[in-house]
Amino acid sequence: MALLNSDKYTRAESWMDMFKVTQLAVPEMVVHVNQGTVLHDNHVVNFDEQDSVPITAPRLGSWLVVLSIDAHGQLVYTYGVQSVNAPTFPRLPDDCLHLAMILVTADTEAITDEDIFDMRQLFGFSINGGAVCQCKCAALDNVLTDEDKAQLKNYFDQYEALRLEIEKLKLLHGPQYVLRMLSDSGIEYELRCHDDGELYTVRVGDPLIDGQKPSDNRILDYRFCLAGTTLNIVAGDPEDYVPMQIDVRSINASNDSAKVTLVLQSRGVRFYGANYPPQYRENEFRVSGLDIDRAGLHEQFSLNFRTRGDHILRLTLLDELTGGVIDDVTALMRVRFSHANHCMDGCLCGDDCTCMQED
User: Which of the two residues, 47 and 353, has the higher pLDDT score?
Assistant: First the structure.
């Protein structure tokens, strides 16, 4: 495979602009691809400069889109997997020259050069779906010698021996028997004994100093602003996420500050919380380590309902110091879809559809 200089770029002394992907003069969801010529498998592949088709943005999070040229000189678009965390690189198609990678988020309204990452330094048609690296990796310049490997092994052997000694000391100075219990809400606790012989529990993983007991006179009168309520929810279709604000208010001017865990539960519901990875969770969303004070607590979530009808939402607020329940409420959510296909049979049904009632 070899690159052939295009007359246009030879005259301009800028042959490296071949196949370059750039934003439009007025940025939009379309990018421009320069012309270029490449020799592949003894065949000349000519590509005329052109604009791409509009690049699609994901519904949530982000994804990576790779633009390539196939052996027939046609543009190929490869979309990665939608992710609310770091997007993963897509598996590239066989027998293509890859030009650029574009980062597109749900908020992207126009693609600029800052979103485009040049891949032309990997000049060459991919094989095996991109599983084979065709460039000299930087790691090859940092290969360890045999002497380096021996020194590294000796270091880790000493480190492992020291770690084992530390674990033995922990066993000698720690309790020989530990009783752990699981609460109804799934929180794990240890049963401990204070110096005066009094038993108390500590949540597993809580950074309490050994022997410390919670104060008996702590005041935590916090309540959800949602109890015994019927919520009428209208979603566009089963793919939509409905925003919901969870508010906790203080009902006592003497309330103490505390670390709390917020638990949302509803069977058959998918929860989304932008600030707490993993953002997507089925049936239950649990957030630990929240700070609550007299200003209360305010958290934003989104709910996805796959079926219409009644759903029970349970909200629980837990004191992380004692594991006790501060408040626990339920609400009835009556869900309907404005233009959903309830039957999943290819036709649209309204809320008065009787298909779901058939045996």
Answer: 47
Question: Is the Cβ–Cβ distance between 57 and 19 less than 8 Å?
Answer: no
pLDDT at 22: 95
Which two three-digit tokens encode residue 323? 């594991």
User: How many beta carbons lie within 10 A of that of residue 174, not counting itself?
Assistant: 9
pTM of this prediction? Answer: 0.41
Q: How far apart are CA 170 and CA 282, in angstroms?
A: 38
User: Cα–Cα distance between 202 and 306 in angstroms, integer?
Assistant: 38
Domain at 222-357: CATH code: 2.60.40.2550
What residues contact residue 93 under an 8 Å CB cut-off, 6+ apart?
A: 68, 70, 76, 78, 126, 129, 130
Task: Output the DSSP codes for 80-144.
Answer: ---BSSSPPPPPPPSSEEEEEEEEEETT-SS--GGGEEE-GGG-SB--GGGTS--S--GGGGGPP
Q: What is the CA 169 to chain-centroid distance, rounded?
A: 40
What's the chain's average pLDDT? 78
Structure tokens at 179: 């009783």
- CATH for the 2-138 domain, from 2.30.230, 2.40.160, 2.60.120, 2.80.20: 2.80.20
